[in-house]
Design brief:
Blueprint (H helix, E strand, L loop, with lengths): L14 E5 L3 H12 L4 E5 L2 H11 L3 E4 L8 H14 L7 E4 L6
Parallel strand pairs: 1-2, 1-3, 3-4
């Protein structure tokens, strides 16, 4: 039915960055997670995703791999490099959500 299972913690304390060049995917994730109180940031490619990561420091990143301008893989490598250069930062939790057309 599309409802979330109850979680043992409040999502409104956390933030997420959704990175996907398919606006429909970002909109679907946003719709599903908005009702939980999770603060949401969105980006349409890895370059913008990297910029938003540095600006907002989300708790979790959900990203596609194949995108124009900068791929999800390149974005992740840049995030890890940025974290290594700024040792005070915690390591971002990243989920890859991608699909191949059939």
């Amino acid at each position: 039915d599309g409802d979330f299972m109850p979680l043992p913690f409040e999502l409104k304390k956390y933030s997420a960055l959704f990175v996907d060049d398919m606006n429909e995917n970002n909109a679907l994730l946003k719709k599903k997670f908005e009702e939980t109180g999770l603060k949401i940031f969105m980006a349409e490619n890895g370059k913008i995703g990297l910029e938003k990561y540095k600006k907002y420091r989300p708790d979790i990143i959900i990203s596609d791999l194949r995108m124009p301008i900068m791929s999800g893989q390149d974005m992740i490598q840049n995030i890890r490099k940025y974290e290594a250069q700024n040792k005070a930062l915690s390591t971002a939790r990243i989920i890859i959500l991608t699909g191949e057309p059939s």
